[in-house]
Amino acid sequence: MKPKKNVPSGPTWRYMCADPSQDFLDKIKPAKSDTNKVDTCKRVSVEKEDSVRKFICELVPTPYFPGDLKEFIAKNLRYPPILAETCVQGRVIIGFFVDVDGTCSNFKVVRSVYPILDEEALRVAKLMPKWKWTSKPKKGMPFYIPIAFRM
Length: 151
Known about the structure:
Helix content is 18%, strand content 35%. The chain is α+β, with helices and mostly antiparallel strands and 151 residues long. It has 2 domains: 15-60, no CATH class; 63-149, Fusion Protein Consisting Of Minor Coat Protein, Glycine Rich Linker, Tola, And A His Tag, Chain: A, Domain 2, CATH 3.30.1150.10.
């Protein structure tokens, strides 16, 4: 004799997200090739109606690099010739703040590999042009980029 499956008692919950109009999404939807322009959705409030739970979502403005960030880093990054013999490799993570107008400031090394590589990563990060926003923000936000060094 087979045992019965445990069936939860009580109401079943369905989850729905209130989406903005399609016209609004078409204006801010990023190109498929650019992964930096992904919009995030955060839960603002929850409403409960007759065994249906609705989540109302708000699109959060996010900054993105105008163009290809990987290409920009590859074009401007130079491996320091002093370290050519030691073959130091790794990934430096740079943190910075993107202001409302798109300017980047407050650069700092979040994850260090070697002091000379950290300086080179900061130099390249400070060369970046102004970033763009998916929609007009009320305030800026911090951002982090990895910069990989390989021989």
